[in-house]
Amino acid sequence: MNFFLxxxxxxxxxxxxxxxxxxxxxxxxxxxxxLLSWINHRIPGKMExxxxxxxxxxxxxxxxxxxxSLEGQxxxxxxxxFSEASLWKLLCKSTHLGFTEVxxxxxxxxxxxxxxxxxxxxxxxxGRNAFPLPHSTITLSNVNGQLHLFQKNHPFSISxxxxxxxxxLPGQFQIDVVLxxxxxxxxxxxxxxxxHRQATIEAHITHFPVxxxxxxxxLKNPHFYGFFHSLLGNELNLDxxxxxxQEKLLFNLTTDSPLMRGxxxxxxxxxxxxxxxxxxxxxxxxxxSINPYMxxxxxxxxxxxxxxxxxxxxFPLTVVDSEQTIDxxxxxxxxxxxxxxxxxxxxxxxxxxxxxxxxxxxxxxMDQYDSLAKGKITLDPTQESYAVSLHSLWKIAPDKSIEAPxxxxxxxxELFHIDSTFRLGSHHxxxxxxxxxxxxxxxxxxxxxxxxxxxxxxxxxxPFSLQIHSLSPINLQGSLRNVVDANGKxxxxxxxxxxxxxxxxxxxxxxxxxLFFLSDDQTDKVTALCGSSFDATIHCDMQGTTGSLQASxxxxxxxxxxxxxxxxxxxxxxxxxxxxxxxxxxxAKTFFPSKIPLLSSIVEGENPMIVSISPEGFVIPLFPFKKxxxxxxxxxxxxxxxxxxxxxELQSLLQLLKWEGEPFVPLWFTPIYFAIHDGKLSxxxxxxLLANRYTLASWGTIDLIGDQADLFLGLTAQTLxxxxxxxxxxxxxxxxxxxxxxxxxxxxxxxKIGRKISSLVAQTNGGLGGKLLGEFLxxxxxRDDEEVPPPTTQPFPWENEFFPLSDESVDHPKKGKxxxxxxxxxxxxxxxxxxx
Length: 836
Hints:
Blueprint: H1 2-27, H2 29-40, E1 46-48, E2 51-53, E3 60-68, E4 74-83, H3 87-91, E5 98-111, H4 118-123, E6 136-149, E7 156-166, E8 169-179, H5 192-197, E9 199-209, H6 210-218, H7 227-232, E10 235-244, E11 249-257, E12 260-269, E13 272-275, E14 279-285, H8 287-294, E15 299-300, E16 304-316, E17 332-346, E18 350-363, E19 368-379, E20 384-396, E21 402-412, E22 416-424, E23 430-439, E24 445-454, E25 461-469, E26 474-481, E27 497-507, H9 509-516, H10 520-530, E28 534-543, E29 546-555, E30 558-567, E31 570-573, E32 577-581, H11 585-591, E33 602-605, E34 609-613, E35 620-621, E36 632-638, E37 641-645, H12 648-656, E38 664-669, E39 672-677, E40 680-690, E41 694-703, E42 708-716, H13 717-724, E43 734-742, E44 745-747, H14 750-765, H15 767-780, H16 826-833
Antiparallel strand pairs: 1-3, 2-3, 3-4, 4-5, 5-6, 6-7, 7-8, 8-9, 9-10, 10-11, 11-12, 12-13, 12-14, 13-16, 14-16, 15-17, 16-17, 17-18, 18-19, 19-20, 20-21, 21-22, 22-23, 23-24, 24-25, 25-26, 26-27, 27-28, 28-29, 29-30, 30-31, 30-32, 31-35, 32-34, 33-37, 34-36, 36-39, 37-38, 38-40, 39-40, ...
């Protein structure tokens, strides 16, 4: 044991001797060469130093410093760096440097087309630039600086001057600061008399390249590369002048740049630097400059002005002294940001406008803040406006996370009022209570109270819960995954995972209207589909845009269930989707488009309408939603037996068929087999029993994106015989009538249909001559008719309840009977019905 202790002691002594001798080694030519070799092996560029004179406890001198680019061109040249501070103080980043001097610094910073500077490439400083600056060349020349930082018996002073040039625009800067005769041990005896003996605060900066600031900031934090350029523009002009009296030192700062201008009147009194009167700055924000820093908050869509008013700002002079303990209570500020008319695209709400929107911020201590945001927000698509106010008390925790223990949010407009209090704890813990009052267009109002809780756990799992207490309770339980990355930054919504289950009982359309801000038309659709009360359950497990979805709905009108998966934003079915809906006039008018006028006149169905969709080939793109890429390969709509109003087309058809009966007409449908592809719905032949007497058929295509439909109406041989006495037709025969619906109007090829009807009547009712004439007319018709599709359902559902009339039982005009003036031929009746 003693041997190891002695060995450790020897090694410790050897290490101490080596460390103590490092400055001496570096002062030699060999040591300097070794230092340069070590540096140049770690950077792509090349460093040169003519002289190194370092001391652990003495002065430091480095001469002839040159940093060259990859092409061998000088980037930075410094004739001499000198400091009275010990090497130890420099390594510890102490501000007690005594006299320090930089002599004849020259620099040339060149930015290439990729936004990278020769300095970044020479030092191999990589990083994602949020706002790459354009190609440019910036030069610094004749830069000299002399600093007396807490030098014994010498005023604290800073003197820096030099010249700049950017793209042919020359600039100058001169900064002189002298703050009395206080030294490192002088703070406790500080007096204004000391300050006034030697006090100077003067600065004159013209055409200073702002891009130079950005390039230097990028060396430490590439993410903020271009940040100052986005706020100030390409140059900065700044002036600071002073004036003194017996009690305090006053100074005035004025700044002017292409995108910002403002001024501050400041003072130094009792070791405190503060503003003497309210100050303001005006910023002209450009979308292309600001948006890279807004990340997931949204995007500025047009240039806007931001007014910054600073009503209070103070901090102690001791901030410049690294060896002083600073009293946090001496830091204070209060400011307000005002946006008069600002347009933003929000990833959640879409395009919005901020009108006279103000954000006020003040600190209660070094780590506690008080903020208030208020103003009017308008959703641009709907022009709906909301008055918003958010008052928050928040603080920065020791681990740099933000906690907001007290928050009060109100949102209101003509229809609703939201009053919410919430708490944001460390690591994204969240609790909230919300009171929501909503009134619809009929002045019906309801109040909901909801409580939300989000509690973070390990492995980035964040459970949450929501309970809404009202006549229709809603419960939501779930958890979020991968909310933040390894660096604590929020991930985009496409990277976040969520597992959640929501249950609602006795829900009403009015409640959903308030919760999801539905329009009156959207609320009517919910009512028509679900009824006045319904239960719903939803479960999802998503990672980004991929996961599973199960949902069920049971209501007065509808029963539906879906089991699906979402793959990269595309919804696909695991099992057939089924839904049963009770159909009435309200449902028909709400959901059936004018392109299908018959269905919009439904009175009621004897049985619920049933929709069934096969998983095979089923695709609905959700993220993003693309209506023209929806695909349903196999779908079935079962209408069964329904009753319709005698309106327009249906009434005309019944008159043609000589049907007289009740105002409500029964129609019995075979199942409708349909498919959707490229934005068009096509359905196979559907057979219809009309008024328990006539059989019809229909098929065709409906354009769901454009306002048109190409349909066929088929009059069967049974109907032609029953209604018009057309005999001797093949029982499979169907007279096709092509109908094109465009923007609410019906188009028919009248000439073609007229010749087809004339041919049909001549062949069946005109004897031998008529038959020959009919065949001749038939030959002259173009052969571009679609082949009549066969029935999809056999036997027909009305097979046991409907018996077609025979030829002998049809009521035809008798021979020798006097013909009434109102009597018309079959041909005349058909042509009149078709408006030919």
